[in-house]
């Protein structure tokens, strides 16, 4: 898929780019049986209190039900009916029609086209879109939609262009190298799909104007130094004054920008072999 620039016919289009959508199946509308209405919250909870800032408005969207697990159709072959756009995620999705007549939405890998056949099995042919256990995937292959715990469905590598690499199997665990170069141990009975998530050019997309962000449901942000002292630790002062602090803080007074939030003694450290900086994790 390509990202192209549009003609700068006005200032709002000067830094604008868009997708060509050449991978999508033309003329195919969404599957209504797999869609539900998405309730807009505007960042507020059930009491009407604002819990998430900078959310609101946006274009109306239908929520597509995505099958991240696929094990309920184990050993049943399916055919890709269409590759569609999903407004709720950065990746494209594909509509699968199984031999028993059931239909499912799944995350589409890069290079997937309608008409191809896929299957989810404990051990299957290593082919684009097929889903199988990590113990059946050879080393060096790209995988996505990776399970962390058996039966929970895919939790890793689900956004546009994301993928992990199968390193090998050691005992009851498989070694998987993530996009951050961290190597993690995952139970070898967990499932993963072959390939890389579609829409790999998503990072090159330029929004171009503020209104386009509003369509996505993102409201404007305000610098803390432009607020009053009662609203933000950076607030107060006359003119363009600095924040007056040794380190920047969040609106609630916690350290920001580079402050490490991961606990030193994290329970998941035993599942990490190498961190994202290339440093080996010492086992205690």
Which SSEs are present, and which pair or pack?
Blueprint lengths: L2 E3 L11 E3 L15 E3 L24 E3 L13 E7 L8 E6 L4 E5 L9 E2 L12 E3 L8 E3 L1 E2 L6 E3 L7 E7 L2 E5 L5 E5 L3 E4 L15 H6 L56 E3 L10
What can you tell me about this protein's structure?
The chain has a seven-stranded antiparallel β-sheet with strand order 9-16-10-13-14-15-17, with no helix packed on it. A four-stranded antiparallel β-sheet has the order 7-6-5-8, with no helix packed on it. A two-stranded antiparallel sheet has the order 1-2. It has one helix at residues 210-215, and strands at residues 3-5, 17-19, 35-37, 62-64, 78-84, 93-98, 103-107, 117-118, 131-133, 142-144, 146-147, 154-156, 164-170, 173-177, 183-187, 191-194, 272-274. The relative contact order is 0.14. The protein is mostly beta strands and 284 residues long. The longest helix is centred in the last third of the chain and has 6 residues, at 210-215. A hairpin with a 2-residue loop joins strand 13 and strand 14 (173-177). The chain folds into two domains: 3-202, OB fold (Dihydrolipoamide Acetyltransferase, E2P) (Beta Barrel); 222-284, Ribosomal protein L2, domain 3 (Irregular). It contains one helix and 17 strands.
Quick structural overview:
This protein is an all-beta fold and 284 residues long.
């Amino acid at each position: 898929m390509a990202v192209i620039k549009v003609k700068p016919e006005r200032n709002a289009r000067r830094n604008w780019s868009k997708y060509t959508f050449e991978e999508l199946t033309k003329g195919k509308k969404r599957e209504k049986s797999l869609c539900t209405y998405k309730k807009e919250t505007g960042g507020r909870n059930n009491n009407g209190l604002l819990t998430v800032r900078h959310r609101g408005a946006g274009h109306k969207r239908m929520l597509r039900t995505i099958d991240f697990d696929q094990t309920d159709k184990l050993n049943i072959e399916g055919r890709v009916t269409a590759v569609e756009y999903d407004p709720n995620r950065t990746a494209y999705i594909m509509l699968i029609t199984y031999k028993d007549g059931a239909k499912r939405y799944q995350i589409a890998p890069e290079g997937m086209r309608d008409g191809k056949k896929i299957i989810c099995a404990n051990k299957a042919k290593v082919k684009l879109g097929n889903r199988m256990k990590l113990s059946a995937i050879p080393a060096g292959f790209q995988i996505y939609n990776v399970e962390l715990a058996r039966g929970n469905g895919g939790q890793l590598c689900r956004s546009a262009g994301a993928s992990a690499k199968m390193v090998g199997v050691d005992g009851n665990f498989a070694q998987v190298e993530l996009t951050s170069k961290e190597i993690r141990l995952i139970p070898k009975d967990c499932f993963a799909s072959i390939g890389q998530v579609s829409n790999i050019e998503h990072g090159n997309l330029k929004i171009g104007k503020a209104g386009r962000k509003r369509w996505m449901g993102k409201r404007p942000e305000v610098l803390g130094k432009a607020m009053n002292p009662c609203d933000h630790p950076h607030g107060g002062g006359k003119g363009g004054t600095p924040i007056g602090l040794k380190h920047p803080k969040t609106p609630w007074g916690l350290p920001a920008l580079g402050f490490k939030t991961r606990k030193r003694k994290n329970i998941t450290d035993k599942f990490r072999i190498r961190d994202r900086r290339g440093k080996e994790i010492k086992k205690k």
